[in-house]
Amino acid sequence: MPLTAKELAGRIDHTLLRPEATAADIARLCAEAREHGFHAVCVHGSRVVQAAHLLSDTAVKVAAVVGFPLGATDADAKRFEVEALVDLGAQELDAVLNIGRLRDGDDRYVFRELRDLVEAAEGVPLKVILECAMLTADEKHRACSLVVESGAQFVKTSTGFGPGGATMEDVTLLRSLVGPKIGVKASGGIRTLAAARSMLDAGASRIGSSAGVAILAELKAASASEGRPA
User: Fold this and answer.
1) How many CB atoms sit inside 10 A of residue 128's CB?
2) Into how many domains does the chain fold?
3) What is the DSSP string of 66-108?
4) Is residue 230 part of a domain?
5) Average of pLDDT values for 111-119?
6) Exposed e or buried b for every residue in 69-90, given b needs 16+ CB within 10 A?
């Protein structure tokens, strides 16, 4: 059975990570999340307090990015960022994997960093961004194994700032590698209802998109044309 607008909204992280976004832009993001019932807003760390205040009386969560968008920050700096964001009110964290270290074959470093971030998060869900467009199939396999072993709760396809966004092939692969107990977040270039549906069908449990409002409007229009409730 097709998802309703409410069900789809509950699987979307409504995202605004443009560096030039203003306080007014964040307020608009939060108002849209409140209106449509998105699972979360996803913002930079300096906007967590504002978003948490604006959404304090709602079920919408505040997600913040860590080591974004390159993932090459020193591991101790990432850990401090996680601790600071949790203290500020972040309820979910999207952290970029150290891609270069993974490609070096330094799995010990990558695992230690991920494990430190999980511990620093103190139970706040951690989504690990792999930036799949930069990785080989073997590197994706190793990354997923390290994420699962670390205790993180999600793997995520992309930052949206890399050379490519989410693909059905990557979502299908990630789902097969992490199994049913770990979340898969598809993010990067998902701007239409068809794209969102394809990612969910491929195994994504969450969608990251800056186009959530447009996606829901498309779903409601399609439902109306078919004579069924949205």
Assistant:
1) 29
2) 1
3) ESTTT--S-HHHHHHHHHHHHHHT-SEEEEE--HHHHHHT-HH
4) no
5) 98
6) bebebebeebbebbeebbebbb
Residue 223 binned pLDDT confidence (cut-offs 50, 70, 90): confident
Residue 57 sits in a domain whose CATH number is 3.20.20.70
Q: Please state, in angstroms and rounded to a whole number, the distance separating the CA atoms of residues 230 and 223.
A: 5
List CB contacts of 205: < 8 A, sequence separation 6 or more.
Answer: 11, 154, 183, 184, 185
Give the domain extent around 207.
5-225
Q: Which pLDDT score is estimated for 225?
A: 80
User: Is the confidence at residue 1, as pLDDT, over 80?
Assistant: no
Whether this prediction's pTM lies above 0.85 is answered by yes
Residue 61 lies in a domain: yes
- Whether residue 220 is contained in a domain is answered as yes
Percent of the chain exceeding pLDDT 90 equals 95
Mean pLDDT value of segment 11-32: 98
Q: Are 77 and 52 in contact (CB under 8 A)?
A: no
Residue owning tokens 């069924």: 228
Contact (Cβ atoms closer than 8 angstroms) between residue 230 and residue 8: no
Query: Considering the chain, what is the average pLDDT of its residues?
Result: 97
What is the DSSP secondary structure assignment for residue 162, as one 8-state letter?
S
Residues recognised as catalytic: 94, 156, 185
Mean pLDDT of 192-221: 97
**Omega before residue 69 within 30° of 0, cis:** yes
